[in-house]
Amino acid sequence: MRKPILFLLILEILFSFKISAQDINPALQVMDKISPNAIKGHMTFLSDDLLEGRQPGKRGFAIGSKYIESQMIGLGLEPGNGDSYIQEVPFRHAWVDAENSTFQLIDGNITEDLQFGEHFILSPYFNAENSSVKAPLVFVGFGVSAPEFNYDDYKGIDVKGKIVVYINDAPNTFPNSERAYYATGDAKYKEAIKRGAVGAISFMLPSNKRTSWPAMVRRIKSGSFKWLNEKDEAANSYPELKTVALFNNAYLSKLFSKTDITPEQIYDLAEKGTSKSFPLNSSAALSVKTNREKINTNNLIGTITGSDPKLKDEYLVYTAHLDHLGIGNPVEGDSIYNGAHDNASGMSILLEIIKAYKSLPEKPKRSIIFTVVTGEESGLLGSDYFINNPTIKSGKIVANIAMDMPFFFHPILDIVPYGAVHSSLGQQTAQAAEILNLKISPDPFPEQVVFIRSDHYSFIKKGIPALFIKSGFMTVPSDTIDRSKLDVGWRSTHYHTVRDDMNQPFDFNAAAMHVKVNFLIGYLVCNQAVTPHWNPGDFFGNKMKQ
Q1: How far apart, in whole angstroms, are the C-alpha atoms of residue 182 and residue 87?
Q2: Cα–Cα distance between 273 and 271 in angstroms, integer?
Q3: Architecture of 94-293 per CATH?
Q4: What whole-number distance in Å separates Cα of residue 200 and Cα of residue 243?
């Protein structure tokens, strides 16, 4: 596109959003100075073996945290937690004592002992060393009650004082993001507790290929984490459910043996986006013994105070996570899970965004908080802690933009902006894409439920519009590979493995484009008069009201 035509197009877009060319020009000039080499430099350090995979509570994480803190100081950010850049985040690490945890199926006077790791795994119980339950089993389909879609797995079924059994998914007839919400453990646990259930057992559909049973067994044995509140209680731990189990669907017929329904029939119904609920005509006795320890970790927070006397009390939050998986099982002699793409990339992009804002001749009108969070790999814990314990003394957080392994192994021609269709942030996203000559593409992998899998979702759960942008897979004639296959291939060979280091074909010019698009969207959000808001009637706007 010739420059005069592009300039006229930009002016037309800016006018429609009531932002003048004079207002946007400083941002365009700053973007010319974004450095691909700076991104590479930050990533090189943050993913080095010296940091030992940046596991929260470990030495490598502390080194990474100090590096980010020093960069915030050097870039001139204001401390975001009083006089400090550090927000302490207490975690509880809990893991199951498999040898002393049990699952018995009970049919009258007949009891069958099942084997941990073969037939089932148990989640740790965060609120006590020992927890147990004995109760009848009731199958409740997907465990979903969604009045928005006239769908209710609990209709006509009594689960009070019982253990619910459900499919670890949601109906495929739901829209992608809404399906992702109803597939979460949080949504299912809350509904089960609301209905009076005392325990939960879930299972995966055979079509779910995101992980394997051996991988799930390995992960549960390493334990899980929750953040602790001021009373030293584990947040979001659902103590009303005395045990929570995942059942190996290779043995699912054991749970359905006293009914006329087979697992295959359940699978067939699920593939059609429906299910049915019924008693399983048997009971179960489960007990879990949990080992627990406290771990101290932290977020990092820096701010830029807005220039407008009124709008400066509204905050845009940028987020990237520092943590990765630490040291694990060795592969070909390498045991360090460096996390170059996941998520040294997002942190490095965030640092360049900060530099861009600090290079502006005048501060944006709204204030900005930059958060580097802990515990994303353990369930979005650091971002959830921050939004439930915000460090601002007054004002209101109005929007979030998160950076997490945005994918830059090729030039970026299009973006996939998760969350843009739900709020007014979609307008700034479209505007920024037009200015940068990028197309906007739909979610190419809805089955991966990416919408709920990064830190922006912590903000959405609190009713705050949020964005999470990944690159799309549009091609040019010179491409010799399907870019979507490249993404799928990377996830199967490098994601959460020791191979996610700097020995990958990163395109740092593409990484700089991620800086530009996230910076420009935020710049528009901070300088437009209208406060970010959910679209009228939006599912998340209604479901997550503050």
Answers
A1: 31
A2: 5
A3: 3-Layer(bba) Sandwich (3.50)
A4: 7
Cα–Cα distance for residue pair 456/169, rounded to 1 Å: 21
- Listed by start position, the domains of the chain span 3-76+305-543, 94-293
| Residue where the block lists tokens 């030495």 | 59
What is the Cβ-side half-sphere exposure of residue 167, based on CA atoms within 13 angstroms? 27
Tell me: the pLDDT tens digits for 363-406? 999 999 999 999 999 999 999 999 999 999 899 999 999 999 99
Determine how β-strand 86-96 pairs with β-strand 277-304.
antiparallel
Fold annotation for 3-76+305-543 = Aminopeptidase (3.40.630)
Cβ–Cβ < 8 Å for 91, 117: no
At a CB cut-off of 8 Å and minimum separation 6, what does 63 contact? 50, 51
Question: Does the pLDDT value for residue 280 go beyond 90?
Answer: yes
DSSP bridge partners of 200: 164, 244
What pTM, to 2 d.p., does this model score? 0.92
Which tokens hold the place of 75? 């870039």
Mind listing the pLDDT tens digit for each residue in 462-477?
A: 999 999 999 998 987 7
* Nearest one of 137, 135, 131, 111 to 247, comparing CA atoms: 137
Mean pLDDT to the nearest integer, 340-367: 98
Q: Are strands 277-304 and 367-373 parallel, antiparallel or unpaired?
A: antiparallel
